[in-house]
Amino acid sequence: MLTIHTADLLIAGGGRSPLPGGAVLVEGRQLAAVEVYEELAAAHPTARVRRWPGVLTPGLVNPYGPELLEQAYHPDPREDLGSEPLTGEALESLGMTDARWGASARRGVQRMLAHGTVAVAGALGRPAVSDAVYRVGMTSEERFGDPPGPSTLDPLIGRSLAEAILMPLLPRMGMGATFTVFDVPDEAALTKEGATTCVATVIEGRLLHRRR
């Protein structure tokens, strides 16, 4: 199935100029084309169309993979432990098991997806955590040195969009359709307001987060 995702502005990355009214064509799991919407719609009149507000960008990398998923606990809302990740003494008091680490990581991954994250940086040592990451199609990227803290779910805090992008949107053989959309008018507003403005995250053609 062909799907066109279009937004008010498309930032493909890789040094290319922003494209007003830009769109991506997704064929199965692959990125088939990046053009202005009118051209893609004319060339593929039977494609399904998803219209998003704001800015469509490549997916982002969160540099704090181990810190957020293996050194913090993301509470289940039913546990009455609050909504913020638990660390330090609060984490130590929980008596964590592999099963609980896995459940925490799955919730953490969903929170990351809601911030436009499609990959994490840093080595993951717990199989249950790695499984939670890989099951949704996220990747684990190598990092050289520890990033400056504190860790945060927002991959745009302290980083430019260019620094946070996993891979530019360049249609070529085997390129996965992986991108995110933020409800802001331009890159300057995205830098100011951050990744909490995310409205959609797609990994290899799968819509894994959509803000309702």
Give an overview of the whole structure.
The chain has helices at residues 37-43, 65-69, 88-92, 98-113, 127-135, 161-164, 187-193, and strands spanning 2-6, 9-10, 19-20, 22-27, 30-36, 48-51, 55-58, 60-62, 117-121, 139-141, 179-182, 198-203, 206-210. It has 2 domains: 2-59 and 167-210, Urease, subunit C, domain 1 (Roll); 61-141, no CATH class. Strands 3-2-7-11-12-13 form a 6-stranded mixed β-sheet, with no helix packed on it. A 4-stranded mixed β-sheet has the order 5-4-1-6. It has a 3-stranded parallel β-sheet with strand order 8-9-10, covered by helices on one side. With 212 residues, the chain is α/β, with parallel strands linked by helices. The protein is elongated and about 60 Å long. A hairpin with a 2-residue loop joins β12 and β13 (206-210). The longest helix has 16 residues, at 98-113.
Topology summary:
Layout: E1 2-6, E2 9-10, E3 19-20, E4 22-27, E5 30-36, H1 37-43, E6 48-51, E7 55-58, E8 60-62, H2 65-69, H3 88-92, H4 98-113, E9 117-121, H5 127-135, E10 139-141, H6 161-164, E11 179-182, H7 187-193, E12 198-203, E13 206-210
Parallel strand pairs: 1-6, 2-7, 8-9, 9-10
Antiparallel strand pairs: 1-4, 2-3, 4-5, 7-11, 11-12, 12-13
Helix pairs in contact: 4-5
